[in-house]
Amino acid sequence: MQLAMIDAVTSFVWSDAMMHCTLLDEDAEHAPNLLGAYRLAPAKDGWLTVGAATNDQFRGLWAALGKPEVADREENSTIAKRAARWAAVVAEYEAELAQYPLAELIPMLQAADVACSPVLTAEEVVVDAQVQHLGTIRVVDHPIAGRMRETRPPAQFGGTPAVPSRPAPGPGQHTDEVLAEAGFTNEEIAALRAADIAR
């Protein structure tokens, strides 16, 4: 089996983000591209992802920001109308989002059922509540590096739990086992080591 990360990511985002690249005939009608509705946006003290693709999400976004009348305007009444002027739509709500700190903004949007998440630094990922809840990262004792963090196997199976692998072996760590499995006797292995053929 082969699995390229770019294949997995492209397949995952294709139906939402690549609609405009799908139909190739000149007379094809392209639906609004949802890529524009799921985007990074600036907050007062950082960045967040926000998704206002559906009518409910869009109304929820503006309700959370205390301006439900914006969503009620005729030019914002349907996905197609918003898509036709998406740059202006985004500029308007991003200007509002930028007025709030993330600690205030994220709970407001979540309460309104708007898809959102703060953009985390690497250091913030390590201590993120969801990462800790899932046990995504664990602390192990490495024989050379000492205490270190590593990710658990991402695929979790109920009947056959994934077991984290052991650390990468050092040079020559498994020479005896490999040569013995290949049929060499202890004396032959010792001779190979003495002749500097095996390490």
Q: What does this protein look like?
A:
The chain is of the alpha+beta class and 199 residues long. It folds into 3 domains: 32-119, formyl-coa transferase, domain 3; 121-166, no CATH class; 169-199, no CATH class. The chain is 42% helix and 13% strand. It contains 10 helices and 5 strands. It has a 3-stranded antiparallel beta sheet, with helices on one face. A two-stranded antiparallel sheet has the order 4-5. The radius of gyration is 27 Å and the shape is elongated. The chain starts with a helix and ends in a 5-residue tail after the last helix.
Summary of the model, kept short:
42% of the residues lie in helices and 13% in strands. By secondary structure, it is of the alpha+beta class. It has three domains: 32-119, formyl-coa transferase, domain 3, CATH 3.30.1540; 121-166, no CATH class; 169-199, no CATH class.
